[in-house]
Specification:
Layout lengths: L1 H17 L17 H11 L1 H4 L21 H4 L3 H10 L15 H11 L6
């Protein structure tokens, strides 16, 4: 009976890790505060072409699928680590490429801090 309890505990632990978001946390590992002002400058030089000045997407740009509306609840409700990963690794089958070769991790976190300023009240 004791062996069954141990096996059950191990299985439950493995399942909970599997459904726990893959280890994603809401805060960057360093715990450093990131700078939305620096992020705005980087956003203006890299992201604005597709996501627009207001984060809602550039008018007249015909990408399929359309760039994400960064002001939407669907984006703003995601964990910071999830959005970091999307910027870092890109999104397959879209125009959203990986920025990991052009931006440092700290720069990506700064951009993310700026993207959080698009949050609608």
């Amino acid at each position: 009976m004791r062996v069954v309890g141990i096996i059950f505990s191990v299985v439950i632990g493995m399942v909970s890790v599997g459904f726990g978001g893959g280890g994603l946390k809401d805060l960057p590992a360093s715990g450093k505060e990131y700078d939305a002002v620096t992020g705005r400058e980087i956003y203006s030089n890299t992201c604005i072409r597709c996501h627009g000045i207001d984060g809602k997407g550039t008018m007249g740009l015909h990408l399929v699928p359309k760039p994400a509306d960064l002001t939407s609840p669907g984006i703003q409700s995601r964990l910071d680590a999830s959005l970091f990963k999307r910027i870092h690794d890109g999104k397959p089958n879209t125009a959203m490429g990986a920025w990991s070769t052009a931006l440092s991790d700290d720069e990506i976190w700064d951009v993310l801090a700026y993207v959080r300023t698009f949050r609608q009240e």
